[in-house]
Amino acid sequence: MKRRKEINDRKKMHSRRNRRKLLGGLLLLVLLGTAGYVFRDQLAGGSKPLEVANSVEDQNLEQENREEGVEPKEPEVEGSVASPEEGPLDREESVPDTRDLTLLKPGTNHSLGASAYAYSTEMVRNWIWGGVSYEGENLAFLTFDDGPVKKSEAVLEVLKRRGVPATFFIPGYVLAEHPDEQVLQRYIEEGHAIAVHSYSHVYDTLYPGKVADKEKIVEEFIETRDLMRASLGDDFDTGVFRFPGGSMSWKGIDEARSALAEIGVYDMDWNAISGDGEPRSRRPEGPQAMAEHVMFTLSEHWMQDIAVVLMHDTKDITAEYLDQVIDQFESAGYTFGILE
Ligand SMILES: [Zn+2]
User: Fold this and answer.
1) Given this model, what pLDDT does residue 54 score?
2) Phi, psi of 223 (to 5 degrees)
3) Which has the closest alpha carbon to 137: 274, 336, 320, 315?
4) Which fold has domain 113-339?
5) CA atoms within 13 A on the CB side of 255
6) Ligand 1 centroid to 103 CA: how many Å?
7) Where are the domains of the chain?
8) In this predicted structure, what is the pLDDT of residue 179?
9) pLDDT band at 99 (very low <50, low <70, confident <90, very high)
10) Taking the model in full, what pTM does it have?
């Protein structure tokens, strides 16, 4: 939208300049015409000068063009009336701004525009779990795991309507099973961030005997990132990971973490949950209870200035409670960020 406004503003500026030039041209023509008119008048007199009539027609055409959004044609007299300082400068000014903020920022997992609210995963982890003090404004990171599937679209629609960004943790197998190049592109264009949630999402493969297999975890990370690059191009990169089941559920996580850090990858757990992925016995009942569960679990955590909220965009109910989650954070004065 912003981009379209920029283009329109530029077009307006351009046609304003053209109108100025046209006016200058008109003035010259009127002067010349008047001179001719006076001269002719002395001989015969009567008719309106042809040049002036043409110029009025040009003006009407220009008006029509403007209404249709077409660049007005340069008046033929431009060269003779343009002031010298308008020459080369004018050309430079009319080069359109090609920086599209919805485009992928090379080497990252988000768009150029999303840089304004993208936070280093390593820093966020240190603020929440690493004992590094945090002095900034309250931040909320909405995170969605296990998609994208068909029902993820409903979640995307809510985020778009509310203008709120999120981070999506994607297992590679989902991308392989439902190849949909558009959806990853949409995450980028709509200001979200893309992260890896292993390839297989199979606990026994990633943590045999409940112990993290660091080689397997790194291998699956790379495999998934490569799949993402196949959709988004080699400029795409992500250093954001989430252990399926969460890092707290397994042994050998320190070794896996070191192996990931060697390739510039940092994992992120959560400190608030909606409970949409909990077993039935522990699952809050209904959308309102799930939204409230987010604030309840956050209130139980030692860190409340930064919230990393675990949700799943593979559940029907997520799009139903998401508005309320956003409302709660907004009214508590939180700003939404993404993880890079
Ligand atoms: Zn998961």
Assistant:
1) 42
2) -60, -45
3) 336
4) TIM Barrel (3.20.20)
5) 11
6) 28
7) 2-93, 113-339
8) 72
9) confident
10) 0.72
